[in-house]
Amino acid sequence: MVIYAKKRVIFYNDAPEFGGHEIMSAHFANELSTNSRVVYFHSHPSLPSRLSSSVNSIQLPFQSRLGTLSFPFNINVSDILWLKKRFKKYEPDYVIIVQGAIDISLRGAIASRISRFNTLNYLPAGYKRWMMGLNHGWFFDHYFSLFYKLFHGTITISQNQKKIISSFVKKKPPVYVLENYINFDEINQLNDSGHFYPKRIEKIGWVGRVDWNPKGLDFLLSVTESLSAVKSNKKIIFIGDGHDLEKLKKKIVKKGLQDYFVFKGWVQDQKHIYSSFDLLLITSRFEGVPLTLLEAITLKKPVLARLTPATTIFKEYLPDLFLFKSVSEAVKKINSAENLVKQYSNIASELRYNLIHRHSRESFKKNIHQIFNMIENELEY
Questions:
Q1: In this structure, what DSSP letter does residue 310 have?
Q2: Which of 138, 206, 270, 280 could form a disulfide with 296 if both were Cys (CB 3.0 to 4.6 A apart)?
Q3: Side-chain half-sphere CA neighbours of 350 within 13 A
Q4: Three-state helix/strand/coil letters over 202-250
Q5: Does 2 have pLDDT greater than 60?
Q6: Is residue 215 situated within a structural domain?
Q7: Pairing state between β 303-306 and 203-207
Q8: Mean pLDDT of the chain
Q9: Considering the domain boundaries, does residue 1 fall inside one?
Q10: Is the pTM of this model over 0.85?
Q11: Is the bond leading into 174 cis (omega within 30 degrees of zero)?
Q12: How many contiguous H segments (helices) and E segments (strands) does the chain have?
């Protein structure tokens, strides 16, 4: 028996923010809905626009709080009972809990488990807290590891993440890999014949969810300060939204860096995103596999990415020349971006070809089929 034999599947996501993982979860739900009955419970109002008409979209009246110490607020008893009643209505074969972090969407996980439904989580990054730069990370890792026991299995997005998550969950429950899918027809607005590399690199793009620690916004400010110190003409085209946006803007004003930032807000059209800057800068402290990286490579947009103990995945997609570890190294490469872009133009087609082969829709669908075959075998056993 496989997932395509008309299963009933619930997706649950009460995250207060919208980003790459939410977009991927919509792709996941859309693919399953071609042969199964799919319901998606969500908090963020932007998510329905990403769902196909075959997915039943249900807006939640609550959302998770963010922050390492917020998990007690994310297990509200009355909300869990409200969910239990509504989950029961659909009698799901599987409930998939979409988590940007293991302590998000716990209401749905608990409601599913006490209802005795097969409960999976879809988690992009299970990095240990010490790797994320949090104080007393070892302590949080200890109690966060208990949350994994809520699930019959975890679906993550890379082999690298599987290794890390498996160190939390030990032998049970199993961890499966569903690599991100890129809709090449949708984002391939720039083709070989129409694309060109500018002679001067003046606009540096930053794209993503505005989350201070994970996205390395302190690092971004330090880079910008160094650019300012040498009176660089580079500007940061900042595209994204999130709970730390105002904090970032206040820090920029305090440091006198207003002239170096152009805020675009959240932009859904990938063509407008990537045509607005010359080079993509990724400053994240930790990542699963960021969609911005995959999209930029697909569009042959040059990328500079920060290499940390929790972003080693970047080595699978970019040569060392386009990776940096320190602020000084990042600034040096940004200031010599024209030369880097020339070198990038020589390898861009090969990078794109490899990525398309790895992250195609066909591979995504095949992996879903294989994962649910394995899950059913595990559950029967």
A1: B
A2: 280
A3: 8
A4: CEEEEECCCCCCCCCHHHHHHHHHHHHHCCCCCEEEEECCCCCHHHHHH
A5: no
A6: yes
A7: unpaired
A8: 89
A9: no
A10: yes
A11: no
A12: 13, 13
